[in-house]
Design a protein that fits this description.
Blueprint: H1 3-19, E1 32-36, E2 42-47, H2 56-70, E3 81-84, H3 98-105, E4 109-112, H4 124-131, E5 135-138, H5 142-148, H6 150-158, E6 162-170, E7 174-176, H7 193-205, E8 208-212, H8 213-219, E9 236-240, H9 251-254, E10 260-264, H10 269-277, E11 281-284, H11 294-303, E12 308-311, H12 315-324, E13 329-335, E14 344-345, E15 360-364, E16 367-373
Helix pairs in contact: 3-4
């Protein structure tokens, strides 16, 4: 196996470890690390979990040292290689710099998949390692590594979450039957069970799910993460409700567990108190054209450490979000149905066409999934 093939092989393993941290690292990035000794044997592996504090590199180093102690073997770190999915940090935050831990270990080489997206620290970790005499390599499996931490990349630079838009629609772009053919506050399924099951991992990977009150009135969704996968904090369910029309007997209100927030421009104190008494957090923002301002909404969520927001909205909000240029990634679930022009459209009155580049296609039974990145959250030059 050549050096480049070997680097790709072990970085793929580090990426597998990083994915174990999805759901339990926010607001930190998901990072994985594999350490090999001079002979190319794995002696340590690790990934980051926010509540356990230690970064992936330190977890892997500790595992290598513990293995040596347990089996009374020599320290095999010296002269070894570390494969890390993100450039190691060179600053003190909740923990000390990982660069210093790597240098102290005696490793000879560090391979990182991608640089840190934080403009103020990117490159400094690799520079510190090189200054200490450690050979470095950057960019192995970079696209996969960046995909894992798109939310972190957006947030760390702009203090706003990555916006992932999910839409389930027919071949002719409809999301519900014509008015009068849909029972209010009951879900109307456009896509198959397989496609709907694929939405749960999207919710698991997000810190918040956002919808509008029109969708609540039409479908009465729960908007919960039912993936069954571990997560550090509950999925925050966000509802945009300019006039506070949220029904007090809807599923989200009945099921609230300190995980529902309504953003509004209404100053109806009586209604606000009714909702708050039922455990709903209500945030009042200054109106823009009588609506909740999307820019200020995402600013507020960013302040709360929300890295990724999954939007599951109706026609008006779908259109407003895309028209605002704030959507980073789209995931369309397309069912082989045709409803006709009288049915409810997914989008309406777009000021200009949205181009989807490098579209990824998946099948869920007879349904299609179309995924595309609209705005790359990573810095252009590192």
């Amino acid at each position: 196996m050549s050096t480049s093939e070997k680097d790709i092989y072990w970085m793929q393993r580090a990426l597998e470890l990083a994915r174990r941290g999805i759901g339990v690292t926010s607001p930190n990035p998901a990072v994985g690390c594999v350490i090999l000794d001079r002979a190319g044997q794995v002696i340590g592996e690790g990934w980051h979990e926010y509540d356990l504090r230690d970064h992936a590199e330190v977890v892997a180093l500790n595992e290598a040292r513990q293995h040596a102690l347990t089996y009374q073997k020599e320290d095999r770190l010296k002269g070894g290689t570390a494969y890390i999915t993100l450039e190691p940090c060179n600053h003190t935050g909740r923990t000390g710099p990982c660069t210093e831990a790597l240098i102290a270990s005696g490793l000879a080489r560090v391979v990182a998949a991608t640089g840190d997206p934080n403009p103020s620290v990117t490159g400094h970790g690799m520079e510190r390692l090189r200054a200490a005499g450690i050979a470095t390599s950057l960019g192995v499996c970079e696209p996969e590594a960046r995909r894992i931490n798109e939310g972190f990349a957006r947030w760390i630079q702009h203090k706003r979450p990555l916006v992932l838009m999910k839409v389930a629609m027919t071949l002719d772009g409809r999301i519900a039957p014509p008015p009068g053919q849909h029972t209010a506050r009951e879900p109307y399924w456009i896509t198959s069970e397989q496609a709907r099951a694929a939405v749960q991992p999207l919710r698991w990977q997000a810190d918040a799910a956002l919808t509008g009150v029109d969708t609540v009135l039409a479908d009465d969704p729960m908007l919960t993460d039912r993936s069954g996968l571990r997560r550090r904090r509950p999925l925050l369910r966000v509802v945009l409700d300019s006039a506070l029309r949220m029904p007090l007997d809807c599923k989200m209100v009945r099921d609230v567990q300190n995980d529902v927030v309504i953003f509004t421009v209404s100053k109806d104190e009586a209604r606000i108190n009714e909702l708050r008494n039922r455990g709903i957090r209500v945030e009042v923002l200054p109106a823009e054209a009588g609506r909740v301002p999307l820019s200020k909404l995402f600013d507020k969520l960013g302040e709360e450490g929300i890295l990724t927001v999954l939007t599951e909205t109706g026609t008006r909000l779908n259109t407003a979000l895309l028209a605002s240029g704030m959507v980073d990634r789209v995931h369309l679930f397309v069912a082989p149905q045709i409803m006709g022009s009288d049915a409810v459209p997914a989008f309406k009155g777009m000021p200009k066409a949205i181009q989807m580049a490098e579209v990824e296609v998946e099948r869920y039974g007879n349904d299609l999934g179309l995924r595309s990145l609209l705005r790359d959250p990573w810095p252009k030059h590192q």
